[in-house]
Write a structure and sequence with these properties.
Chain A has 386 residues and is mostly helical. Chain A has helices at residues 2-14, 18-27, 31-51, 56-77, 81-105, 125-142, 150-168, 173-189, 194-215, 218-228, 237-251, 262-265, 277-309, 314-338, 357-373, and strands at 107-109, 112-118, 121-123. The chains are: A mainly alpha (386), B alpha+beta (646).
């Protein structure tokens, strides 16, 4: 297949020299992905500078987290892939235990109980689950015959469902969606039969009616309605989305200019430096800025998918695909919710939104991708066997 | 590599992965496309809507209040000015916990119960949203500083420099200049669209007197500015500004020194004085005592202060010179006499025999002259006026009849609004057959005419009407509308002639003779009041019986007795040869018109014609009313420089 050959060679065409490839192998770094990440980091920092009201405190904090995140990425990239597979169950069950601990002795803020306090340091076990989940599911499924049988699908669903339920319970809808997605994607790429997928969709839709009418309280229904249509609540949940749409829309094609966004800088836009940061960018850089950012994301995703394609075995392939697709889900859910397409569920914009541990987790994920990308090639290439 | 993998179909797994990846890629690209579509829709298709929305968010139009016009007396002294005052206001919508904010503010500045009471009153009125409600006026430097230091903790608290109306002469001009006060709920409700706009930056409105009458001129035209505000409403910068047009100034005929003199002449007694410049109709002085401090009303009067003013039996809020209507008594006799001359029912030489009683043919009722035994057997018009002979006018009125009397009196503005430039004047009564039929539902009796001939019965006049009547007499039939204001917004307000009628010169002279005799004659009733005068004057006294006392009022017997006494009235003009000033005086319950009210008129005329002002010892001191007339007085002689100072 010539197309396949082309895709496989694509990474090498940019860096045609064998020496560079050797260097990548030795450092366990994918240069193309690294450059894309650095570009995103630069964009993120400059948008955050504006969104935070030129706060040097925020910039320093974010800078420190980026340094930690890049170090984490580099460290994770050095870990052999087969070691990752062996450690997957430990990470997964360790994560589950921590999630249970959160429920028991966790500390919270704004009505959510998400953190474990270790002295001065607070940390969020659900972040571990973001990586432990795809690791575990990929490790589990890659050992079975693919496509997976109904029994394994069932076990996989249990493995996905349990931590997801724990995270929803915190409550943290955004993270639970990301965690569940990262597991489901592995199942999908492993070849989950279309019939099952179709049945699941039918079952889901069919269950909506009884759940809505018999299992939910009025206040829960109200909350769901507000989630689905925030603009009905103009001064509460609707305020954010109205202001963010106004920010995005008033940016126009080319934006109001860096540091010139009135919606964000005059504080009309809430959460402008965290979940709603794309609104700041859209206001200041316009549609062209949004498309540029989207393009860079797309390149990073394509690169991730190529790494998945070139992975040495099913485990690496499934894991890389899951991490990459989850990254896409981050982008899509965030940009969708800020622009009023999706309910507001609390997903940050990767590498742009302010946030400490989320960035470290994200970059550790890219570390896994790089580890997969730079895994030593086996002698026998599967494609040549054909 | 684990054992199981040897048995796996590697190629099949790869094929599945490729297929799934293709599906996933299509899905991702489709979702990306949805995002692109969405952002394109928001940023390009709906750009205008959201750009407008964004501007509406941040740009607010703020009205800039115009500076209210100033009011000057005829010599350019300021009667109403605007003083800068720092006002602490709270914006309810932004203040969060109001009680908490107020409690905290109380630790920074002094806020007494009175301030709080006014604040809550204003707050519960209908307001424009986000309109600051004033809490404390006249902040001191220290208070400003402590507020500035803690500004960051005071969300929704505003300090602004406002111009607040101030009346430097206090109660001296309370009934003429009037006062401004905060726009009330009722006024706000009655505003039309244009007024709502014009008052958008202004908190106060003319409530009484000239402040109310000339509101349109004094107000000015509101300006505005577009300001950029943040989400918390704080102004970040001004984008565009249209300056307000300040209100027009008023230059009055009123003279501070004349007011002070009139006030001093009344010497704390209840009453009113009006002095009119004969040639122009300009009001030189108009006072009503007791008075009150109009400054109390500017920023909102407290309940206690208002109750004190409103429930006082002396009724300081009551404007006696336009709202007080009293029987004019004998003060209208010159007009009745002139009517007789003009209609030919008497002449200067005609005499009557006055036995001291008067009786209509075929009736029992006897009218008795104030002087027992009468004024003699040969009483002519001059003597009748000079001695205020009732019988002469009863006879004359009876022969003339109601219709002639009624018609003639109207020329002098009796029973008509003077249309002076302050609001709320009362019309009084100058009866006619028509009037009695419509108001009383009764026919006119000859006895009514008898009473009317000496200013009793149904007749009621305000001191302003009497002053207009006197000025019309002095001007020989030219009735000019009385005006407080000479120039408004730089424009001269020409005198308006309300009526002009012809009476033979000899008739005027005859009546003037009689009125001069009142002052200068050997038996003139007010000869004491004219003693030592350097010019000749004409006058007429009057005494009005007190008909009733306000209902429901409880007075002790001594006070009751005092308030049953007759009112003393006096009208006069001078100099006789070329009249310049016409004066009317009423002293409530003071009895003798000539002895009590006459000297007041004399003092006022002396002030205007000879510069003999009675000024308070401290030029700026507000209370001038309590100075005794007969004690040692500051008689300051000043050049009567009547040029206004701009």
């Amino acid at each position: 297949m010539s197309g396949r050959d082309f895709l496989r060679r694509l990474p090498r065409t940019g860096f045609g020299l064998g020496r560079r490839e050797a260097l990548q192998q030795r450092l366990h770094i994918d240069f193309l992905l690294l450059i894309l990440l650095l570009v995103l980091t630069a964009i993120g920092m400059s948008v955050l500078y504006s969104a935070s009201g030129e706060s040097m405190v925020t910039m320093r904090r974010q800078g420190i987290f980026f340094v930690i995140a890049y170090v984490a990425m580099f460290a994770v990239a050095q870990v052999p892939v087969h070691f990752m597979r062996r450690m997957a169950p430990w990470a997964y069950f360790g994560g589950i235990i921590l999630l249970i601990l959160v429920l028991v002795i966790g500390v919270g803020a704004k009505g959510a109980q998400r953190w474990l306090s270790l002295g001065a340091f607070r940390f969020q076990p659900s972040e571990i689950m973001k990586l432990a989940m795809p690791l575990m599911i990929a490790a589990y499924l890659s050992k079975r015959f693919l496509p997976p049988s109904l029994k394994h699908v069932f076990f996989t669903l249990v493995l996905i469902g349990f931590p997801t339920a724990l995270i929803i319970d915190q409550p943290d809808l955004g993270t639970s969606i990301l965690v569940a997605t990262s597991g489901m994607v592995v199942l999908f790429f492993a070849g989950l039969r279309w019939g099952y997928i179709f049945l699941a969709i039918v079952a889901f839709v069919a269950s909506l009616w009884p759940v809505w009418h018999f299992m939910m309280h009025d206040y829960q229904r109200q909350r769901v309605l507000t989630l689905l249509n925030p603009e009905a609540d103009r001064l509460g949940a609707g305020w954010n989305i109205i202001q963010s749409k106004t920010a995005i829309g008033s940016g126009g094609l080319s934006g109001k200019g860096w540091l010139e966004g009135t919606q964000s800088r005059l504080d009309f836009l809430p959460e402008g430096h965290t979940d709603f940061i794309i609104a700041v960018m859209a206001e200041e850089f316009g549609l062209l800025g949004v498309l540029t950012l989207l393009g860079i994301y797309l390149l990073a995703i394509i690169r991730g998918m190529m790494i998945a394609l070139n992975a040495q075995d099913s485990f690496g392939r499934l894991l890389a695909a899951s991490i990459t697709f989850t990254f896409f889900v981050y982008v899509f859910v965030n940009m969708g919710m800020v622009s009023g397409l999706l309910p507001v569920v609390g997903v940050p914009l990767p590498l742009i939104s302010q946030g400490g541990t989320a960035i470290v987790t994200l970059m550790a994920g890219f570390g896994i991708l790089m580890a997969i990308a730079t895994e030593r090639k086996r002698v026998m290439r599967p494609q040549k066997n054909k | 590599m684990s054992e199981t993998q040897h048995f796996k179909d590697y190629h099949r797994e790869t094929r599945i992965f490729w297929a799934r990846l293709a599906v996933m890629s299509v899905l991702m690209l489709a979702l990306m496309g949805v995002l692109v579509y969405r952002y394109h829709h928001l940023q390009v298709v709906q750009y205008q809507d959201y750009a407008t929305q964004s501007d509406r968010n941040r740009i607010h139009v703020q009205p800039i209040p115009p500076t209210r016009g100033l009011i000057y007396d005829r010599n350019g002294l300021l009667l109403a000015e605007n003083r800068p005052s720092y006002t602490l206001s709270v914006v309810r919508e932004r203040a969060g916990d109001l009680e908490e904010t107020l409690k905290y503010l109380q630790t920074l500045v002094e806020i007494n119960a009175n301030d709080l009471e006014k604040f809550y009153k204003l707050m519960h009125q209908r307001r424009r949203p986000f309109e600051p409600v004033p809490l404390r006026y006249n902040l001191t430097e220290e208070e400003l500083a402590s507020l500035a230091v803690n500004e960051f903790r005071l969300e929704g608290v505003e300090i602004d420099a406002q111009l607040v109306r101030h009346y430097p002469y206090g109660e001296l001009f309370a009934h003429t200049v009037g006062y401004v006060g905060r726009i009330s709920e009722a006024e706000l409700t009655n505003f039309d669209e244009d007024q709502y706009r014009r008052y958008s930056g202004t908190h106060s409105i003319g409530k009484t007197g000239l402040e109310r009458y000339y509101e349109d001129i004094l107000l000015g035209e509101v300006g505005n500015q577009n300001v950029e505000t943040n989400a918390r409403g704080r102004v970040q910068r001004v984008l565009e500004r249209i300056d307000p047009k300040p209100g027009g100034d008023l230059h009055l005929y009123l003279d501070v020194r004349m007011q002070q003199t009139a006030m001093a002449a009344l010497a704390g007694r209840r009453g009113a004085v009006v002095a009119i410049e004969v040639k122009s109709g300009g009001v030189l002085a108009a006072v009503s005592t007791p008075s009150y401090d109009p400054n109390l009303f500017v920023t909102g009067i407290s309940f206690a202060d208002y109750r004190n003013l409103n429930e006082s039996i002396d009724m300081p809020l009551y404007n006696r010179f336009i709202q007080g209507v009293y029987p004019p008594g004998s003060t209208i006799k010159p007009v009745v006499g002139l009517a007789g001359l003009d209609t030919g029912f008497t002449d200067a030489r005609r005499t009557i025999n006055d036995p001291g009683t008067f009786r209509l043919p075929n009736t029992e009722w006897v009218w008795r002259d104030w002087k027992r035994g009468g004024h003699g057997s040969r009483v002519d018009l001059k003597q009748a006026i000079a001695e205020s002979c009732d019988t002469y006018f009863w006879d004359l009125g009876n022969r003339m009849g109601i219709d002639r009397l009624s018609e003639f009196g109207s020329h002098f503005g009796l029973g008509e609004l003077t249309r002076i430039d302050i609001p709320n004047e009362r019309r009084g009564v100058w009866p006619s057959r028509e009037w009695k039929r419509t108001v009383r539902g009764q026919g006119w009796y000859p006895g009514d005419t008898i009473n009317m001939s000496i200013g009793q019965g149904y007749v009621l006049t305000s001191p302003m009407q009497l002053a207009v009547m006197t000025a019309t007499l002095a001007h020989r039939g030219v009735r000019i509308r009385p005006q407080m204001t000479e120039r408004a917004n730089g424009k001269f307000l020409a005198p308006i002639i309300e009526d002009r009628f012809d009476v033979a010169e000899a008739h005027w002279d005859a009546v003037f003779d009689g009125m001069a005799e009142v002052m200068h004659g050997a038996r003139g009733t007010a000869r004491r009041a004219a003693q030592g005068a350097e010019y000749r004057m004409a006058g007429k006294s009057g005494t009005a019986q007190v008909v009733s006392i306000p209902q429901g009022a409880k007075y002790d017997s001594e006070a009751l007795k005092e308030r049953h006494r007759d009112h003393a009235l006096f009208v006069a003009f001078a100099p006789l040869e070329d009249p310049q000033i016409a004066v009317s005086v009423i002293l409530e319950n003071a009895e003798g018109g000539s002895s009590q009210a006459g000297p007041v008129a004399r003092i006022v005329m002396d002030a205007f014609l000879r510069g003999k002002y009675l000024l308070p010892e401290e030029p700026e001191a507000a209370p001038v009313a309590r100075q005794p007339v007969s004690g040692p007085q500051t008689l300051a002689r000043r050049m009567s420089d009547t040029d206004g100072v701009n």
